[in-house]
Amino acid sequence: MPGQIPPTAPSTAPPAASGTGSRGLGCLGCAGLVFVAVVALFVQLTWDSPRDLPRVAPGEMARRAVRHSQEAYDVLGFTRTVPPGARRTGVGAENTLRAGDCHDGGLLGLEDKTVDGAYRMVHDWALDDVPESRAVPGLRRLHRRLQEDGWTVSSYREGGKDGQDWSLYVRRDGEDERMSFTWSPDRRYFTGGATAPCAYDTGWTEGDGTSWSPSDAADQVSPPVLGPGRP
Fold this sequence. Notes:
Layout: H1 19-47, H2 58-76, E1 85-86, E2 94-100, E3 103-104, E4 113-114, E5 118-127, H3 132-148, E6 152-157, E7 166-172, E8 177-184, E9 189-195, E10 199-200, H4 214-218
């Protein structure tokens, strides 16, 4: 009929989704992610615990540290032979081994306790009267080589004309292995060092009542002659 208004068609739009349900699922998802993150952190902290250190004789760790130093020495291009010992520490040539403490940060990494029976072997060496013509190209060459060999460069600085020291610090396997090199233009003094990973001394037994310190591990070893092309 003219003028008659047709009936309104029924709405076909879907009903609105419940906001409460979606928010609930979102909260559950967040909680799940937090739980996974906490578990992952716990596993990492416990997996890297110093309590899981291997038992390795000081002589083996000493050879490991010296081997890194010798490889770096060859890349630097030094030709001098350095016998074991130190004539004048901080001034003359040096070729020594020492052992330091290993630290346990606890489950959350907030503590700082030394680990009984564990040591970290360090090889220190140095050369006096090193000219710029030897130190500068050697450090640049070593910087490139260590990166190619998989070491991570923690810091590298080329000294300026104002007499600043040149320095190179590298690490590998996290912080387990480290090396450092410094050349002082004013003193013409070059220092190097290699640090091996922490390990328990094979001569130490937990709870036997005897006193022990990392120096006991260092006393068992002495470095070989440091020089060009040494094995």
